[in-house]
């Protein structure tokens, strides 16, 4: 069973509690723009399966049919304990290669772009991990771990990782030795040279100690969160594709055929020599590091938050209703378009242009609402859309009339 869906309300409650705790202690670790951007990516990640369906399930089926030991007994506790440990071992290598190889980093990078570190960062997840991630779990299929056990321990592993995304919990004594904790996972999210490419475990940190990738969090080296080539955007489309497009560009530009292929399989950061000379990339200076933080009027932030709530409602609707494939794809497209425009509002762009994008998006949503059911209008959905669109119009109307909203401060 995939427990993640049921954990979502508790995740959101925990985010509110962490926010309140931070405010009370005068050590708030949240910025609305960064958190909304993370949660938009989390929403898209959850909705991805409506488009790709059961790719992973089909691969599992092929393996267990042809290359697997007899299926283990799902009712025996030993199966679960073994699956828990083997899953985390496979996860360690997926995660490590996810950082060390460009093609896998392209998928995993989405989890690391946030320049804050809080529980919303935990929900910042990729939508393209399904493409290659399954390769690393083949040992589980070959061992004959039943499908429901693989899915259950996978979702429990992900849920475990939620709580470690916080700055408020210090080191935890002996526990640090065996398990992934807030402290050792903070190191994993750092862009400091000293901390780079360390602490890959999901549940057990023992793998890192065993394979030489462990690094302790040090008092003299405060963590700077984020990635070395900063995204400087809240746009989920860009977040999910920027490394793929970097690789595509490098592969296109290089004159050498070998390098055109090597770009895709090389170590993360490797670039063809001719391309890196002609198109150098500069790394941010961490001593003078400034987080991407375009300033927008409070009403725009509220509008973005409203959009996030609407997206959560759409996701819940998709998850708890038995919908056709076309309806699922339409729902995902609505989420993607809305997430992308919401991010644009937070990037302090021209209000006149944003209004046009929003109108275009609302028109497209209306078409998508009609499309899945072959032209027959579904009244409940249309009514919900009408209320949603009306509130959106009120928001945009108020924003346009707010002094200073038309010419927002440029992005830093
Ligand atoms: Zn990572
Ligand atoms: Zn993380």
Automatic annotation (TrEMBL):
Residues 80-213 form the Fatty acid hydroxylase domain. InterPro entries: Fatty_acid_hydroxylase, Sterol_desaturase/TMEM195. The chain crosses the membrane at residues 6-24, 36-63, 75-94, 299-318, 330-347, 359-377, 383-400. It is found in: Endomembrane system. Keywords: Lipid metabolism, Membrane, Oxidoreductase, Transmembrane, Transmembrane helix. It is a multi-pass membrane protein. Its main location: membrane. It holds the Pfam family FA_hydroxylase. It comes from the Bacteria. This is Sterol desaturase family protein.
């Amino acid at each position: 069973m995939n427990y993640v869906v049921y954990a979502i309300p508790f995740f959101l409650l925990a985010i509110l509690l962490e926010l309140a705790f931070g405010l009370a202690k005068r050590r708030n670790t949240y910025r609305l723009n960064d958190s909304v951007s993370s949660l938009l990516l989390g929403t898209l990640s959850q909705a991805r399966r409506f488009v790709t369906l059961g790719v992973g399930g089909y691969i599992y089926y092929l393996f267990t049919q042809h290359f697997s030991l007899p299926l283990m007994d799902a009712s025996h506790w030993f199966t679960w304990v073994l699956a828990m440990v083997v899953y985390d071992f496979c996860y360690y290598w997926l995660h490590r290669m996810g950082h060390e190889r460009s093609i896998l980093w392209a998928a995993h990078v989405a989890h690391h772009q946030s320049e804050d570190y809080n529980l919303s960062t935990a929900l910042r997840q990729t939508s393209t991990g399904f493409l290659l991630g399954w390769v690393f779990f083949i040992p589980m299929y070959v061992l004959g771990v039943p499908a429901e056990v693989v899915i259950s321990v996978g979702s429990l592993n992900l849920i475990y990782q939620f709580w470690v995304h916080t700055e408020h919990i210090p080191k935890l004594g002996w526990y640090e030795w065996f398990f992934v904790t807030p402290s050792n996972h903070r190191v994993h999210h750092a862009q400091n040279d000293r901390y780079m490419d360390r602490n890959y475990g999901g549940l057990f940190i023992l793998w890192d100690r065993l394979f030489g990738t462990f690094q302790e969090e040090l008092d003299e080296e405060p963590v700077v969160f984020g990635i070395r080539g900063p995204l400087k955007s809240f746009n989920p489309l860009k977040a999910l594709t920027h490394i793929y497009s970097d690789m595509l560009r490098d592969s296109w530009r290089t004159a050498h055929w070998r390098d055109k292929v090597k770009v895709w399989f090389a170590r993360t950061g490797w670039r063809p020599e001719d391309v890196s000379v002609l198109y150098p990339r500069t790394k941010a200076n961490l001593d003078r590091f400034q987080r991407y933080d375009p300033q927008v009027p409070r009403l725009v932030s509220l509008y973005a938050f409203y959009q996030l709530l609407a997206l959560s409602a759409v996701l819940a609707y998709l998850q708890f209703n038995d919908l056709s494939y076309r309806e699922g794809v339409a729902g995902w497209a609505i989420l993607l378009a809305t997430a992308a425009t919401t991010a644009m509002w937070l990037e302090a762009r021209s209000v006149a242009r944003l209004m046009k994008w929003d109108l275009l998006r609302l028109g497209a949503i209306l078409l998508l609402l009609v499309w899945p059911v072959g032209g027959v209008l579904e009244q409940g959905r249309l009514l919900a859309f009408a209320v949603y669109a009306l509130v959106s119009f009120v928001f945009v109307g108020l924003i346009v009339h707010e002094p200073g909203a038309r010419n927002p401060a440029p992005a830093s």
